Amino acid sequence: MTAVLISIPFLHAFGLFGLSLPLYVGFVTIFFKSIFLFRNLKYHLFIEDVLILLVIFSATVATFFISSSISILNLFHFLLWSATISIFFFGTKFLISNSNFSYNSLHRAFALGLALTSIGVTMDFILKNFLGFYLSDLIPYNIDELDPTQNFSGLLYRVRGFAAEPSFTAMVYELFLPFYLINQSNTKLSKVFIIWIVACYLILTSAASIASLLVLLVILFLRSAKAFLWISITTILIYLLFFDYIEFYLNEAVTIKLFSYLGGDALRFQLVESLTPIIFENPFGLGFGTLSNAFQEKGALMGFQLIGGGALNLYLDITIAAGILGFISFCGFVVIILFRSIYYDSSKNAKALRFSCYWLLSHHFFLTEFYFPMLWVNLALIQMAYFIEQNKLR
Description:
Oligomer: single chain
Strand content: under 5%
Shape: globular
């Protein structure tokens, strides 16, 4: 299980044939675990597992029976969706069920994952801003990166780490960081480590990630009047002491990008407007990859002009592929996992994992990337929290 988790930072680095390193590591780990424990394999199924399978089934039916034509891209998306759910969600559950993987193991794996992610960010920052090239110029990435962008009034290039885009790497922090912070030790080395990884996260300047985090923190602190008062006073003091620096960072790294995301003529709003009629005209979905194929080759779908290069929203992508039933099934799948966790598990570990889930779900309003492992692994960890806790007691 640890091998899968520490491979997650390499979202695009060292990938082959359009597939990510975590996907390969997950497959190999599950394969060999199955061979070694063939006669004693265990697995835990939950009722909501049927719902994520229903998403895959709905989109599969739409792909092969509703879609007017099937291309290589349709088949690739079908296989990639199936592999993603099988390895990162069901595979994570399988590895936990057949190991002594505990919360202590998870903390160590997350710490190592954060270290690897931050090493990538640090190296990319130094290479691009001082030597003029990215990590991707030195090591293979399985997809092309976006064009270089600058922030802080053009002073610095945005870095990407081991992914093709800064926001992608930010999502790795969204998985690892809350749980690690909840369980970190109070040593000088640990404090230095936290300062380093938080600095690396902030260097990414992912507006969607930071905005989602701020909203979640406000909601969290509003639940406790005492905590909200204490945090408010602390925040005000820090803001007054470092006003110029904080204002400069927020203006340059967050505010400008959020206006571009959420402005009245923003691309994402135009996408929603152009895709909504397609959803209602095709309530049973159009299948895996149909939308991506239309964006790449035609620029139009069902007579509707498409804007941009993709849905830029996981939930829109699921609805287009699997239909309204698929979208409802996905929502039910997530809600049941979270509701059960909230109802039965009030431990700090469970709360940290749920916070990561809210953070990732919020960020996915701005990104599609269904094949990323972070959300699926997180949901599996939340669902299997009881068994992870039992492993700790063995």
